[in-house]
Design brief:
It is built from no helices and eleven strands. The protein has strands at residues 3-7, 10-13, 18-25, 32-39, 46-51, 58-60, 68-73, 78-83, 92-100, 114-115, 119-124. The strands form two sheets. Strands 2, 4, 5, 6, 9, 10 and 11 form a seven-stranded mixed beta sheet that branches. It has a four-stranded antiparallel beta sheet with strand order 1-3-8-7, with no helix packed on it.
């Protein structure tokens, strides 16, 4: 099983940017679809973005489309989430997740078998 560790979270003002990283160990992620999810206080965890193993396709939640960009560097076993034009409603714990690549991309938590511990993102107004 692949182990995932997120970093890059922090406190930022609305309109600012952050770049999250997710470093994998234990296995190469070169054949894994990688996803980002987030959980706001008092809310359920929700899908943010996902990227195929070869970085050809990506998928985003409507709430972040046009502001967030997911990318990956398989040589570094790392996935990134660039977050621009941040809003207070983007506040939450951001989780990285992995699943073996399948023909269709996933958005459900249950589709991902490996998870990181999360990194806190706080956007002040």
């Amino acid at each position: 099983q692949v182990q995932l560790v997120e970093s890059g979270g922090g406190l930022v003002q609305a309109g600012g940017s952050l770049r999250l990283s997710c470093v994998a160990s234990g296995r190469t992620i070169s054949r894994y679809e990688m996803g980002w999810f987030r959980q706001a206080p008092g809310k359920e965890r929700e899908f943010v973005a996902t990227i195929t193993w070869d970085a050809i396709d990506s998928d985003y939640a409507d709430s972040v489309k046009g502001r967030f960009t997911v990318s990956r560097d398989n040589a570094k076993n790392t996935v990134y989430l660039q977050m621009n034009s941040l809003k207070p409603e983007d506040t939450g714990v951001y989780f990285c997740a992995a699943r073996w690549q399948r023909p269709s991309m996933a958005r459900r938590e249950a589709d991902f078998g490996s998870w990181g511990q999360g990194t806190q993102v706080t956007v002040s107004s």
